[in-house]
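Example 9 (inverse folding). The structure is encoded as follows.
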């Protein structure tokens, strides 16, 4: 029974950016700390057991990433192939939010079904709010793909935190965006929180330094508290930040794609 409610998680590092701390943290100059080079890693995640496959985000379109100065380390489509992610109707794709580096390859999946927060869809698509500072992180034609999916019945919108399937909960954690989702996944090593962009890098949570792109800084502070509570209560053994470079050294590599992929929460590792 237990085997059917726990999952293995593969984290695929498909992209990278060399940047500066002042480009990572919001209003960095206000901290009066020296600026230093740093990096961001770009991930998506494959959550699976013998019964089902859940893809978490799709990465950026390599052409869009190049235009925005990001390096593609492996085309996400090639990574799906290497890891055996099926593009079938019973494959669920959770879109944690609508930024370009999370929905850029949605159009390449022809049969899979998608889930995202209604608050996210509403903010960008149903009743779009126009602010240059928030809309610089999205691609309008990629939002149009989501609208097409919605019209065709392949995109489900959720109003609140809820169970996706046994062993995987979707948790709303707004702030970075209005409908940012996290996933609480049961694994052989206990709960793993895929925080996606509710937490970009560990330091964002540990030192309460919001990321550069924020829709609601007050909501983000509440989301940090939710993540901290999950961690300190023992509900999760790992908090996985969505762009943390050090992850690749902290977890074992995946045999099918060892250069680009690590395994989270596997007792076999
Ligand atoms: Zn984002």
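The amino acid assigned to each position is listed next.
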């Amino acid at each position: 029974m237990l085997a059917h409610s726990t999952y293995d998680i593969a984290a695929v590092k498909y992209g990278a950016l060399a940047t500066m701390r002042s480009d990572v943290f919001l209003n960095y100059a206000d901290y009066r700390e020296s600026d230093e080079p740093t990096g961001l890693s770009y991930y998506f995640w494959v959550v699976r057991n013998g019964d089902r496959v859940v893809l978490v985000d799709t990465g950026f379109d390599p052409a869009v990433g190049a235009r925005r100065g990001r390096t593609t380390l492996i085309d996400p489509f090639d990574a799906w192939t290497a890891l055996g992610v099926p593009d079938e109707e019973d494959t669920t794709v959770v879109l944690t939010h609508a930024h370009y580096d999370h929905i850029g390859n949605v159009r390449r999946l022809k049969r899979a079904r998608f889930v995202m927060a209604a608050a996210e869809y509403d903010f960008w698509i149903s009743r779009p709010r126009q602010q240059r500072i928030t809309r610089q992180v999205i691609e309008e034609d990629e939002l149009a793909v989501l609208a097409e999916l919605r019209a065709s019945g392949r995109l489900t919108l959720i109003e609140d935190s809820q169970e996706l399937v046994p062993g995987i909960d979707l948790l709303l954690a707004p702030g970075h965006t209005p409908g940012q989702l996290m996933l609480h996944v049961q694994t052989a090593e206990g709960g793993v929180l895929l925080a996606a962009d509710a937490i970009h890098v560990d330091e964002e949570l540990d030192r309460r330094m919001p990321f550069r792109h924020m829709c609601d800084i007050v909501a983000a502070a509440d989301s940090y508290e939710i993540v901290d509570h999950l961690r300190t209560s023992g509900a999760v053994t790992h908090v996985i930040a969505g762009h943390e470079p050090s992850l690749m050294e902290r977890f074992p590599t995946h045999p099918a794609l060892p250069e680009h992929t690590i395994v989270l929460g596997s007792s076999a590792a």
